[in-house]
């Protein structure tokens, strides 16, 4: 009897174990609940592609001219700030064969993506630029800088909307004087001169004082002096150094007739192809360099004048009466251009300037 109970006990235990095994095998796993987001999460946009390129850049001036050096300085600052992504391939000394009027078109069409263009040289194509050539309007570098600040927005507008290019900066030239074979101390001393001029209003000045203007390109100035085609030149001190005037001329009369302006421009299509960060970098660096160039211009003038003196040029210091007389002789040139030939924006520029200098 005892043995029979033992067998039943073992059977019961076995059945219980078997039942537990079946129950474990039949249990389905329970998935953990997943929290659904209340709102859709915006996808993160990839970073804007950064522009890379080496842009052909032009200067008609020699390698050592301060305008060419300024173009190199701008390129160096841009290259450093963009970690080498953007730089200029600078061709100086007129190596590309363009004149200033041709450069205005060349930059517009993207043939020359970046260039320094002398405003007065391109005034035949863009009449507004002639406002920089009004003779004896400015008296010193402070007035010249103020004048530049007034006309710069007008230049930016016409370059962008008419000529498909972005104005990066305006780089000043030293004030223009007259370089001669005989000293000039009066208006009468200018009578009969055969003078190289570089813009329309400079030519009118020479006609007003009884001289003959010769609108020669810079590349022909030295040979024309050497062969007697001309006997004098209206220009600034850096150009005199570039051309080694002391080899063919003897005197320099500083007269601040005009203050030339070099426009540093970039093709608008090329500029707009750049990412916004690169655009902002180029504009900021251009503005910084423009400030530096204005701060340096009077010293550049003195240094170049001293080079000519050391090589034999005699600087003439005319009496105050000379400046009063020549300003009066050339008054009609300024007024007639504004009344008859100038675009309306030019009168706005001059009026604003006169208001700010109180004359």
Number of strands: 11
Q: Report the sheet-strand fraction.
A: 15-25%
Mean of pLDDT? 89
Shape: globular
Q: Can you tell me the CATH architecture of the domain at 53-179 and 234-357? A: 3-Layer(aba) Sandwich
- CATH hierarchy, class of the domain at 53-179 and 234-357: Alpha Beta
Helix and strand sequence = HEHEHEHEEEHEHEHEEHHEHHH
What proportion of the residues is helical, as a percent range?
40-55%
The radius of gyration computed from the alpha-carbon positions, rounded to a whole number of angstroms, is: 37 Å
Reported for the largest beta sheet, the result is:
6 strands, mixed
CATH fold title of the domain at 53-179 and 234-357: D-Maltodextrin-Binding Protein, domain 2
Stretches where pLDDT falls below 50 for ≥5 residues? 1-8, 10-34, 41-46
Name the quaternary structure: single chain
Tally of alpha and pi helices: 12
Question: What gap, in angstroms, lies between the N and C termini?
Answer: 139 Å
Spatial order of strands in the largest sheet: 7-6-8-5-9-11
Structural class per helix/strand content?
Answer: alpha/beta
CATH superfamily of the domain at 53-179 and 234-357: Bacterial extracellular solute-binding protein, family 7
What do you see in this structure?
With 359 residues, this protein is α/β, with parallel strands linked by helices. The chain has a domain at 53-179 and 234-357: D-Maltodextrin-Binding Protein, domain 2 (3-Layer(aba) Sandwich). The chain has twelve helices and eleven strands. Helix 5 (200-208) links the parallel strand 6 (194-196) and strand 7 (212-214).
């Amino acid at each position: 009897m005892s043995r029979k109970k033992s067998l039943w006990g073992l059977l019961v235990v076995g059945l219980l174990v078997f039942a537990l095994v079946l129950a474990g095998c039949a249990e389905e796993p329970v998935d953990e609940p997943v929290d659904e987001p209340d709102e859709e999460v915006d996808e993160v946009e990839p970073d804007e592609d950064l522009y890379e390129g080496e842009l052909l850049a032009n200067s008609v001036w020699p390698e050592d001219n301060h305008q060419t050096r300024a173009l190199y300085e701008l390129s160096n600052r841009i290259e450093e700030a963009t970690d080498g992504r953007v730089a200029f391939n600078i061709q100086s000394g007129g190596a590309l064969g363009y004149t200033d009027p041709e450069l205005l078109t060349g930059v517009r069409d993207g043939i020359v993506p970046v260039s320094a263009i002398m405003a007065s040289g391109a005034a035949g194509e863009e009449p507004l630029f002639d406002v920089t050539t009004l003779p004896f309007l400015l008296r010193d570098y402070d007035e010249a800088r103020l004048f530049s600040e007034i006309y710069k927005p007008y230049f930016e507008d016409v370059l962008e909307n008419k000529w498909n290019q972005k104005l990066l900066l305006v780089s000043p030239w030293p004030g223009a004087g007259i370089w001669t074979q005989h000293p000039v101390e009066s208006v009468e001393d200018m009578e009969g001169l055969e003078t190289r001029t570089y813009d329309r209003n400079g030519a009118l000045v020479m006609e007003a004082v009884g001289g003959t203007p010769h609108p020669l390109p810079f590349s022909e100035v030295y040979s024309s002096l050497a062969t007697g085609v001309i006997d004098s030149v209206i220009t600034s001190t850096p150009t005199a150094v570039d051309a080694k005037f002391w080899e063919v001329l003897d005197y320099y009369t500083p007269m601040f007739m005009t203050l030339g302006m070099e426009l540093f421009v970039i093709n608008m299509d090329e500029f707009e192809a750049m990412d916004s960060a690169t655009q902002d970098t180029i504009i900021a660096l251009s503005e910084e360099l423009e400030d530096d160039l204005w701060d340096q211009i009077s010293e550049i003038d003195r240094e170049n004048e001293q080079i000519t003196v050391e090589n034999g040029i005699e600087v003439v210091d005319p009496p105050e009466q000379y400046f009063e007389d020549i300003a009066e002789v050339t008054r009609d040139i300024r007024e007639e251009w504004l009344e008859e030939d100038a675009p309306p924006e030019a009168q706005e520029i001059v009026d604003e300037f006169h208001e700010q200098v109180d004359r």
